[in-house]
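Dear support,

We are seeing what looks like truncated structure output for some complexes. This example has two components. We would appreciate it if you could run it in full and send us the complete token output so we can diff it against ours.
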Amino acid sequence: QKEVEQDPGPLSVPEGAIVSLNCTYSNSAFQYFMWYRQYSRKGPELLMYTYSSGNKEDGRFTAQVDKSSKYISLFIRDSQPSDSATYLCAMRNYNNNDMRFGAGTRLTVKP
Amino acid sequence: EAQVTQNPRYLITVTGKKLTVTCSQNMNHEYMSWYRQDPGLGLRQIYYSMNVEVTDKGDVPEGYKVSRKEKRNFPLILESPSPNQTSLYFCASSLRQQYNSPLHFGNGTRLTVT
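Here is the complete output from our reference environment:
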């Protein structure tokens, strides 16, 4: 079993839709959670990070962490074609700072 | 502009021909790392460096070498490339290897080994 599981998609939605992207993890030592966005032919860039259970909002993006279920989510409201990218979840091990990435979910937002 | 620069962006080579992928950052970051990205497997760490002259293996180090002689540069060396090293490679850096120090990635090097 992988330490971090992420549905690779692809996911295709119409413009304006609410998008939900999810990851599960197995190691309770993961305490710091991130979402990276990767456009085609580019490197990943940090979108959001959080280290506590609950929600964190940044504009149209909301990161949600449920440590009891070992489940994290990224919600995108009013999705735009410019949101079309691959979204990778990532998490850091509190004990050794090791970082693990999900496989990434490819999202397409159609105008 | 703060950035991580990798070269080349695309590389096609043959089995056994030594190659080097360069990586340079201009942010005075202590921590640098190499990843490979393969479909369905995500980003896997090859090697990392906590600071100058300090390097260590990641999860998939076999067939790779690195060096960190200067803070800004962290080249990835494939002494004898094989087809299973065909992949998309990313260099990344952060101020330090700690939870609140985000990784900054280069734009990748797509390597094909025939």
